[in-house]
Design brief:
The protein has 173 residues and is mainly alpha-helical.
Length: 173
């Protein structure tokens, strides 16, 4: 067992039980998806195809590799999505009630019932422009990454907080 896991067990006694619970939960979800017969193409479609190739003697992912990779994708996607939504909800919407009301109005105009709100429906270009702008601004202000993102000044340059910044200057913090 790695040192980091041992430290977590000492600091948070329930860590091992929660980790085992998480590993079992994700394994069950991944197995369920692998068993699902669907025409929808996603990561698992290609992972399953590679598993089949491996069994036919060609190079592909093993079942264990599919489980491990899927867990990493689930964990990475969950954390970044949760961070984005937390930032948007608190900093932009809760601190700015006018923005919250505008987002609510946009969503309630676009959809008559909660059942209509699906990933496919909200992905239609131009349907929710203000909500999309709020999410983009949340990503800009509070990127869910462990370091700041570089920014490059475009065009003829810019004035930022009263300072003239020439074009092509890159800021990395």
């Amino acid at each position: 067992m790695r040192l980091g896991l041992r430290i977590m067990e000492v600091i948070v006694p329930s860590f091992t039980a929660k980790r085992v619970e998480y590993l079992e939960f994700t394994r069950a979800k991944i197995e369920k998806r692998l068993d699902l017969k669907t025409d929808r193409k996603d990561f698992m479609t290609y992972a399953s195809f590679r598993l089949i190739l491996r069994h036919n003697g060609e190079r592909g992912m093993t079942h264990v590799e599919i489980i491990g990779t899927s867990r990493a994708i689930l964990a990475a996607g969950a954390e970044t999505t949760a961070s984005l939504l937390s930032a948007a909800t608190y900093y932009l919407l809760e601190q700015n009630p006018d923005m919250l009301h505008r987002v609510q109005s946009e969503v309630r105009t676009a959809f008559k019932t909660g059942d209509e709100i699906t990933l496919r429906a909200v992905s239609k270009p131009g349907l929710l422009p203000y909500l999309e702008a709020v999410l983009r601004e949340s990503l800009r202000c509070f990127p869910p990454v462990p370091t700041s993102l570089p920014r490059k000044v475009g065009g003829a340059g810019a004035v930022i907080d009263g300072y003239s910044v020439p074009k092509d200057v890159c800021n990395v913090q």
